[in-house]
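Regression test case RT-17, inverse folding.

Input:
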């Protein structure tokens, strides 16, 4: 299972890449494999402030729809528009071209609550 060590993770299977005051967020390889073929990514919170643990969008797969939960409070400043025409990028490259949103972090202390790669691996191996 691909779990990049430089990223942070949530118990809800999102990953977070922090660059300065900006966080890039997507779903993990484990999440996309559990969901199956992703057919649509919906993010309707662009330019909005979203609190940690609130829904910022959803992912629609062939069999199910899953809410996306914000791992950090902040303002959604960018949506990966490539996902509009190619939602399968989330399946093919969940940590690269399949990223979902970029957020300006409003409370950096929340980063301490995220899981590192080892803790996330322990979570999914249960």
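Golden output:
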């Amino acid at each position: 299972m691909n779990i990049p060590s430089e990223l942070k993770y949530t118990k809800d299977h999102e990953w977070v890449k922090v660059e300065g005051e900006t966080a890039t967020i997507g779903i993990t390889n484990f999440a996309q494999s559990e969901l199956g073929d992703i057919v649509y990514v919906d993010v309707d919170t662009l330019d909005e402030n979203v609190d940690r643990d609130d829904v910022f969008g959803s992912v629609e797969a062939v069999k199910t729809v899953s809410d996306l939960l914000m791992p950090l409070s902040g303002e959604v400043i960018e949506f990966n528009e490539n996902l509009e025409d190619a939602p399968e990028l989330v399946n093919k490259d969940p940590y690269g071209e399949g990223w979902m949103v970029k957020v300006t972090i409003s409370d950096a202390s929340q980063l301490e609550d995220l899981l590192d790669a080892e803790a996330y691996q322990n979570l999914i191996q249960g």
